């Protein structure tokens, strides 16, 4: 029994009735002959059946009766005939529309075809694009049903359909096409590409699908293929340069580290500014590992997005504004990255396999000198041994020590296998991916295995859809590199005194100590404050291991009540168990470990459970008005549980066990945090004639982080309007499509970033407890962001040129501040709401399709700029005196520079004790002619770019494919503490050059190089002297590929693709001594800073893919 | 077929049940308060049980006076007072070799004594003061003694500090002059002594503070002795700047019937006890960080006097020699001074109790009091000899003929690395004072003798030794070799204080700026505190 029959049966149960309102034509003359014998000439092409009937009725003098519900005016017919009897014309129309026509006297009665009359037949065909390339994976379904499938590897589809059924062909990046099945068993389709999403159905909030043209906000869609062209172990990194308005920054933590994605500017001063990730409509917890608290060091242990399989991604929609995000709740205030994963396909089983191999080398390294040796005498002329600095004599032969030789060639192997299969009622997707990567730092590796299964099945005559999916991720990372000074092998490596043989420490990083009967670290250059150790000791004997197991399970159940309403319920559980262990062997520097070594054991479990119920309505209210509405409720629970045991070993050296820790001084900690948000929400979109759409959204959140305050819930509305100009006005022919949209949104945000702030309690440790540091925040209010957006989507020249422009402005108020107060208050900090942070900006995307015979070129440019202004920092009332204080600024970090949020300034302003200068810009110097550090803080820069731009190009010629992406970040500043320290140590190229020149010129006078760099450089550098432009332009991605013709392997293995891929191939411009796209960490306070950052990598490799 | 159908039904049924569960959960927010309470922490209501909420806050106070967190202690005291007193010196070229030890003061380090004082001592004292006074006057009295002990060390580093207005006035807390602070200290110690006396009288056999008392295990009598001794220490500190008040307070302390710490049994030391453990930070900095060594003056005095305490304070090298490092020497590599002597902790190592005050110091205080003509209950000589004796006894070394040595003086200094750092015989930076008491010498020579021996006995409390050096200019110390203060601190005039906490300029800016006026000089390391007179008397 074929399910399609079931469906049609249901549909045909609606009784035929003759609607008087359906009379659309009046007789023009009375019938004298049998109406059926009248011959007519017609020439219509793809006209709605309704119009054709009207025309036919006029010509033949027939009154036409039909039920509008059945007529389905969207059905298109084409008739070209000369003097054909009307019954033949009607028969043809019947074939094309599936409708039944009966002429009774002068009445033409239109009714649904009895399904028994017209049996479903197999319709096959090939889908190609305008270049003649077959398209794989095009979704083909019968309109109004769930019956459908996808094109196979050779672009073929096969579907059981009856004449009159409308086949809908959708493919991401192509215009959706509808074709009515006629009598022909073969339908070949050509989809027009380009001009993108406008006719497409896009997945929006909560997984609700909407026609792109009805949206009142901007969406940018990236296909899965665009992500995996140049694969990265973390899929968000592949978005760099491809999305207008996204500022993507990686932490300097190597493979498997976190990535910060900021959409439309930073909105929260103290909270998270990262975009929300949503998978198949369900928000994903960020699970970001703790980021380093200060420059001394810490470790980035990745985030939740990093461990997904990029090959499971069907497409990514980036909703940069908060308008779209209102439905995700507070987490969506920073914009949403919406990931749609792959599903099974009805029809033929397809197996996809791809294998990627890439090799990595450091991309940008500091420049070193190699002509001056280690310091051998101190300032007084006394000999010193083992000085870690290089202010010694000129070497007779330049040092051959090359810090870059420390780096290995990183290797990443990503192998993916996926199977898509299914029947009309049951589709299954399975995938497996392995990622095996060795880092450029010795002993750093990542092994990740992803398994996904997804099954979609339809029951109860297709009224019930059950979608079940499960993912399992196993990831093991050994020796993630540390950021900052501690455990960072780059600090001792880069500063290693020149002229000394590095190999003796490389080959003998440990030597046997007969007294201890132990191999101990061999390194006479240890310095306590940066905890410098032998780089090879660090990578071999300061080990850490991060084992992660994550399971995601989703059950979604959807019941279609009738053709305009359905109810959907979903549950998702996302559970991550992570065990982190660090083993530091005995003779590790005393700052980091005890005499016997030290050990850290940190198991954590994070569970997010999400459930929702949504009623979806999609109804034509009348011929012109349509209504789409979604009303629902959701609940989200976030739970984190774990403990951390970290201490020196007690009695047994190198016995790494929690049972061997000195509990007399190291006290375990435990955490069990829980946060719950309950929400009700509703959205309604009223459309008029496909021309004007009005959206109204409202949401109310109850947030447990607001417990103990006067109100634990908050409401936020959004409204949007969209006008299809091309439908409303007669525009020049060159304009194929134009749409203007605007929206106004409010998004609230609870206080999950500061759990327990409203109810602080006393942590218990070592048999005692301590006074509370942060005063209770009992008048906590949720943060609010109000944003406005106006956008234009347009296409020109037969859809070959497209332009999208968005202009936005947002105000973020009620910011939650943690204000460090004087400890003389009895507290160390207070929380306050306040401030007003404005972001405004422009995003634009221009795309073009050029075709010259079999050569195609698709360039696209994206551009974005964001301006941020701090309108207000904070006005607060002294809790005791009641005195109103207006805070001029707050510091988000205070080390090399203060990241200062200052009224009138903008987010990302860096302040420091700069070198003092006079009115003419000359340095004010001390008696030795050296610059003096000012006691006042002055602004030395801002890390945010003025604008971002990406230029993507795709060339296709026959089976060859070339694409590249050049992107740039313009404006903004970064600071390099690395350079400052390398200068002070006399190992930087600058310090060598200065000695060659006989000193450094300050105000036109030469001063001694060592004296200069000891004053200006070093750990406490005068930061103003180490500010660099963050402008950088690079060839970020390059792919050159060839697809073997199917015939090559007898069509048994298809789409065999071979490509050469490269990332970060060429830094076209960068004036900073490091890659400004890499930040010390992803926290707000440590952006734009280089502290011995792990360099970004140049990756070159190849990819093989095939389909079976 | 049927089986499959059932299976599907089961799946659907389970899903629906799950949804129903979710929905039923969503129906209320009554658990929100539970979710937003950290279940691993103590709450105020839990702290009401057994009176835990009062005593528990006294423990962190005791662990903060000399912070038991090694890196905190390092900045709280080790890289200032411990070095500036000549007790110790670091062989580590911190901060690229420019740091406190050579007067290149590091602002981010020098916030620590202030922050620890307020966050760990004052904040916890506030908890006790809010919970205790009515029903627990004994707890409150002891908390006040701990507060004075902890906070006088803070004011003696910076000068003016917020004290009387602490925790009262919202965000801007005014600074008190050091004079006001000292007067408040005396008043607080007096009220503590009174309260403890009253409590003992009313509850003779009760020592309910014991579970929270790491110093005297609940012996209230000993707390009174400590309070009196502390009062005497503070009185002597202001003996030059305010002789009248000093005499009044000093005599009151010495003549209180409860007495002072007069035997080593009464010493105020923080011990590992009651399930509260810690590691002596100084041990950790010495042996784990390997960041601190013997100071050159310590080497020279101990060697010069052939003082047997040298072996209980320091570890000799293989040849039995001791090597100190002089303040402010140029250090380019941590290896340079690898041969410098390490501190000796005997068998107790990390478990070594933390010295707040010992009997020898009290004896020397009384010696100075007697020298100043106060009613000290004995002569300067008597207390001087007693101080030395108590110190030897405390260090378990035989006194021998030490007290009779009228010839030995401080030995010259020979640097491990460079002759530039040497202090040869005849240098004005070597003291000529001997051990044996001599009533016939000048007042200043007597004072030097007392303070020099007190200095040796104070080991390892560098902060107190530095304060007394600033007050008296004794013992004779060696100036820094390299001075990175950019002219703010005189090399031969020595460092007089640390600048106010940099954090205060951010969070309490108006008040800290007013405090500069109270200080009476620029906010740098060269300005003298209230009790540090330019002309000593």
How would you portray this structure in words?
The complex is a heterodimer of chains A (1108) and B (537). Helices cover 8% and strands 48% of the residues of chain A. Chain A is mostly beta strands. In chain A, the strands form 15 sheets. Chain A has a 22-stranded antiparallel β-barrel. In chain A, a hairpin with a 2-residue loop joins β55 and β56 (1005-1007). The longest helix of chain A is centred in the N-terminal third of the chain and has 12 residues, at 49-60. Chain A is elongated and about 120 Å long. The model of chain A is unreliable at 1-33 and 194-199 (pLDDT under 50). In chain B, the strands form 3 sheets. Chain B has a two-stranded antiparallel ribbon with strand order 1-3. A two-stranded antiparallel ribbon of chain B has the order 2-6. A two-stranded antiparallel ribbon of chain B has the order 4-5. By secondary structure, chain B is mainly α. The longest helix of chain B has 25 residues, at 178-202. In chain B, α9 (137-158) runs parallel beside α11 (220-237), α11 (220-237) packs antiparallel against α12 (243-255) and α11 (220-237) packs across α16 (359-371). Chain B contains 21 helices and 6 strands.
What are its keywords?
heterodimer; A: 1108 residues; mainly beta; 22-stranded antiparallel barrel; five-stranded mixed β-sheet; 12 helices; 62 strands; 8% helix; 48% strand; elongated; disordered N terminus; B: 537 residues; mainly alpha; two-stranded antiparallel ribbon; 21 helices; 3% strand; globular
């Amino acid at each position: 029994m074929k399910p399609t029959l079931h469906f049609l049966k249901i549909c045909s149960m609606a009784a035929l009735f003759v609607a008087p309102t359906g009379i659309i034509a009046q007789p023009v003359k009375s019938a004298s002959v049998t109406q059926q014998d009248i011959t007519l000439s017609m020439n219509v092409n793809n006209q709605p059946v309704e119009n054709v009937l009207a025309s036919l009725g006029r010509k033949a003098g027939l009154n036409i009766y039909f039920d509008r519900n059945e007529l389905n005016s969207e059905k298109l017919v084409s008739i070209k005939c000369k003097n054909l009897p009307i019954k033949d014309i009607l028969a043809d129309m019947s074939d094309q529309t599936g409708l039944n026509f009966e002429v009774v006297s002068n009445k033409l009665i239109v009714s649904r075809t009895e399904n028994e009359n017209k049996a479903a037949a197999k319709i096959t065909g090939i889908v190609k694009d305008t270049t003649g390339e077959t398209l794989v994976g095009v979704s083909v379904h019968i309109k109004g049903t769930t019956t459908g499938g996808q094109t196979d590897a050779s672009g073929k589809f096969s579907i059981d359909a009856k004449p009159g059924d409308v086949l809908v062909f959708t493919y991401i990046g192509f215009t959706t096409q509808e074709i009515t099945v006629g009598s022909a068993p073969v339908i070949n389709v050509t989809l027009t590409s380009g001009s993108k999403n406008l006719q497409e159905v896009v997945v929006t909030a909560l997984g609700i699908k909407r026609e792109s043209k009805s949206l009142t906000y901007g969406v940018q869609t990236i296909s899965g293929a665009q992500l995996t062209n140049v694969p990265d172990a973390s899929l968000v990194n592949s978005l760099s340069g491809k999305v207008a308005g996204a500022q993507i920054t990686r932490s300097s933590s190597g493979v498997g580290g976190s990535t910060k994605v900021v959409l439309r500017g930073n909105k929260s001063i103290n909270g998270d500014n990262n975009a929300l990730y949503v998978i198949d409509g369900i928000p994903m917890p960020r699970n970001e590992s703790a980021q380093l608290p200060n420059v001394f060091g810490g470790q980035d242990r990745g985030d939740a997005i990093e461990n997904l399989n990029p090959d499971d991604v069907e497409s990514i929609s980036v909703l940069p504004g908060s308008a779209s995000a209102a439905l995700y709740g507070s987490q969506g205030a920073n914009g949403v990255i919406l990931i749609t994963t792959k599903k099974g396909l009805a029809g033929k089983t397809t197996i996809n396999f791809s294998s990627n191999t890439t090799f990595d080398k450091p991309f940008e390294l500091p420049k070193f000198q190699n002509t001056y040796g280690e310091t051998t005498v101190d300032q007084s002329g006394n000999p010193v041994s083992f000085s870690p600095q290089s202010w010694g004599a000129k070497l007779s032969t330049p040092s051959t020590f090359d810090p870059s030789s420390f780096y290995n060639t990183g290797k990443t192997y990503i192998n993916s296998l996926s199977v898509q299969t299914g029947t009309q009622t049951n589709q299954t997707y399975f995938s497996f991916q392995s990622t095996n990567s060795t880092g450029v730092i010795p002993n750093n590796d990542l092994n990740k295995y992803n398994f996904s299964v997804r099954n979609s099945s339809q029951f109860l005559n297709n009224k019930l859809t059950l979608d079940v999916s499960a993912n399992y991720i196993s990831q093991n990372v050994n020796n993630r590199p540390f950021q900052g000074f501690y455990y960072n092998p780059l600090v001792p490596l880069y500063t290693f005194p020149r002229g000394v043989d590095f190999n003796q420490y490389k080959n003998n990083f440990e030597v046997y100590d007969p007294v201890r009967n132990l191999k101990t670290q061999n390194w006479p250059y240890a310095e306590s404050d940066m905890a410098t150790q032998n780089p090879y000791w660090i990578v071999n004997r300061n080990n850490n291991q991060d084992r992660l197991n994550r399971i995601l399970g989703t059950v979604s159940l959807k019941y279609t009540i009738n053709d305009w309403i359905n109810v959907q319920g979903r549950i998702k559980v996302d559970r991550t168990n992570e065990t982190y262990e660090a083993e530091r062997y005995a003779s590790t520097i005393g700052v980091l470990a005890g005499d016997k070594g030290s050990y850290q054991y940190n198991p954590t479990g994070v569970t997010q459970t999400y459930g929702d119920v949504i009623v979806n309505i999609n109804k034509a209210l009348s011929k012109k008005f349509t209504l789409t509405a979604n009303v629902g409720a959701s609940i989200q629970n976030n739970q984190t549980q774990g403990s951390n045991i970290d201490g020196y070993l007690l009695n047994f050296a190198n016995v790494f066990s929690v049972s061997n820790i000195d509990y007399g001084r190291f006290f375990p900690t435990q955490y069990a945090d829980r946060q719950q948000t309950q929400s009700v929400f509703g959205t309604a979109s009223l459309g008029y004639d496909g021309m004007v759409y009005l959206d109204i959204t409202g949401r109310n959140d109850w947030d447990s982080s607001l417990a103990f305050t006067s109100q634990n819930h908050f409401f936020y509305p959004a409204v949007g309007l969209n006008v299809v100009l091309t439908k409303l006005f007669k525009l020049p022919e060159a304009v194929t499509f134009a749409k203007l949209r605007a929206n106004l949104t409010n998004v609230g945000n609870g206080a999950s970033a500061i759990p327990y702030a409203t109810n602080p309690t006393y942590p218990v440790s070592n048999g005692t407890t301590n006074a509370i540091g942060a005063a209770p925040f009992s008048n906590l209010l949720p943060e609010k962001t109000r944003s406005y957006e106006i956008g234009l989507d347009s296409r020109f020249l037969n859809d070959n040129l497209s332009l999208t422009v968005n202009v936005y402005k947002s105000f973020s108020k009620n910011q939650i501040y943690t204000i460090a107060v004087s400890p003389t208050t009895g507290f160390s900090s207070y929380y306050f709401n306040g401030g007003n942070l404005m972001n405004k900006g422009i995003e634009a995307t221009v795309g073009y399709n050029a075709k010259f015979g079999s050569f195609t070129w698709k360039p696209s440019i994206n551009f974005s700029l964001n301006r941020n202004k701090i309108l207000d920092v904070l006005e607060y009332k002294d809790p005791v005196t009641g005195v109103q204080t207006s805070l001029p600024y707050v510091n988000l970090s205070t080390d090399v520079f203060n990241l200062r949020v200052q009224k009138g300034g903008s987010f990302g302003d860096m302040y420091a004790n700069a070198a003092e200068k006079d009115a003419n810009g000359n340095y004010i110097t001390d008696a030795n002619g050296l610059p003096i550090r000012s006691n006042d803080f002055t602004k030395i820069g801002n890390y945010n770019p003025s604008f971002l731009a990406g230029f993507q190009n795709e060339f296709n010629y026959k089976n060859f494919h070339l694409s590249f992406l050049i992107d740039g970040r313009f404006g903004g500043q970064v600071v390099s503490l690395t350079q400052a320290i390398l200068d002070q140590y006399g190992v930087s190229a600058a310090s060598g050059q200065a000695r060659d020149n006989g000193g450094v010129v300050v105000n036109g006078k030469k001063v001694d190089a060592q004296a200069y760099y000891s004053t200006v450089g070093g750990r406490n550098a005068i930061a103003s002297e180490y500010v660099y432009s963050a402008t950088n332009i690079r060839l970020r991605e390059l792919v050159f590929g060839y697809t073997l013709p199917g015939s090559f392997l007898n069509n048994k293995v298809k789409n065999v693709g071979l490509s050469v891929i490269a990332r970060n191939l060429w830094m076209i411009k960068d004036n900073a001594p490091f890659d400004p796209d890499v930040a010390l960490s992803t926290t707000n306070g440590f952006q734009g800073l280089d502290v011995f950052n792990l360099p970004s990598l140049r990756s070159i490799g190849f990819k093989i893919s095939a389909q079976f | 077929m049927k089986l499959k159908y059932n299976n599907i039904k089961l799946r659907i049924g389970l899903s629906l049940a799950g949804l129903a569960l979710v929905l039923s959960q969503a129906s209320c927010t009554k658990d929100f308060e539970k979710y937003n309470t950290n279940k691993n922490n103590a709450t105020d209501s839990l702290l009401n049980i057994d009176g835990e909420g009062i005593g528990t806050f006294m423990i962190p106070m005791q662990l903060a006076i000399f912070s038991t967190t090694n890196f905190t202690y390092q900045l709280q005291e080790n890289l200032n007072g411990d070095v500036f007193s000549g007790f110790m010196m670091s062989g580590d070229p911190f901060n690229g070799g420019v740091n406190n030890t050579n007067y290149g003061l590091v602002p981010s380090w020098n916030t620590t004594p202030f922050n620890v004082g307020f966050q760990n001592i004052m904040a916890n004292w506030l908890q006790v003061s809010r919970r205790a006074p009515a029903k627990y006057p004994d707890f409150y009295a002891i908390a006040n003694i701990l507060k004075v002990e902890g906070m006088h060390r803070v004011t003696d580093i910076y000068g003016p500090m917020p004290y009387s207005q602490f925790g009262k006035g919202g965000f801007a807390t005014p600074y008190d002059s050091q004079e006001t602070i000292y007067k408040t200290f005396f008043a607080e110690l007096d009220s503590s002594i009174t309260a403890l006396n009253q409590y003992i009288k009313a509850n003779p056999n009760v020592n309910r503070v014991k579970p929270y008392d790491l110093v005297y295990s609940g012996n209230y009598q000993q707390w009174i002795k400590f309070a009196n001794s502390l009062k005497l220490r503070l009185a002597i500190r202001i003996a030059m700047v305010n002789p009248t008040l000093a005499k009044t307070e000093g005599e009151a302390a010495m003549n209180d019937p409860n007495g002072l710490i007069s035997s080593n049994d009464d010493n105020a030391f923080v011990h590992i006890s009651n399930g509260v453990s810690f590691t002596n930070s100084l041990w950790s900095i010495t042996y784990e960080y390997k960041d601190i060594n013997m100071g050159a003056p310590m080497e020279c005095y101990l060697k010069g006097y052939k003082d047997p305490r040298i072996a209980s304070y320091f570890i000799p090298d293989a040849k039995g020699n001791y090597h100190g490092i002089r303040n402010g020497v140029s250090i380019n590599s941590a290896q340079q001074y690898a041969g410098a002597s390490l501190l000796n902790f005997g068998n107790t190592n990390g478990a070594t109790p933390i010295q707040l005050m010992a009997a020898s110091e009290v004896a020397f205080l009384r010696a100075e009091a007697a020298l100043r003509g106060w009613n000290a209950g004995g002569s300067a000589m008597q207390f001087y000899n007693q101080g030395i004796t108590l110190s030897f006894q405390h260090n378990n070394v035989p006194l021998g003929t030490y007290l009779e040595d009228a010839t030995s003086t401080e030995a010259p200094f020979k640097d491990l690395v460079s002759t530039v750092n040497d202090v040869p015989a005849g240098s004005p930076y070597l003291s000529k004072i001997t051990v044996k008491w001599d009533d016939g010498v000048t007042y200043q020579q007597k004072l030097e003798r007392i303070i020099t021996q007190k200095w040796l006995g104070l080991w390892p409390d560098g902060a107190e030794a530095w304060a007394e050096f600033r007050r008296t200019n004794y013992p004779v110390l060696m100036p820094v070799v390299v001075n990175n203060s950019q002219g703010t601190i005189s090399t031969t005039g020595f460092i007089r204080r640390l600048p106010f906490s940099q954090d205060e300029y951010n969070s309490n800016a108006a008040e800290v700026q007013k405090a500069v006026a109270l200080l009476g000089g620029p906010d740098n390391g060269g300005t003298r505190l209230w009790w540090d007179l330019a002309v000593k008397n």
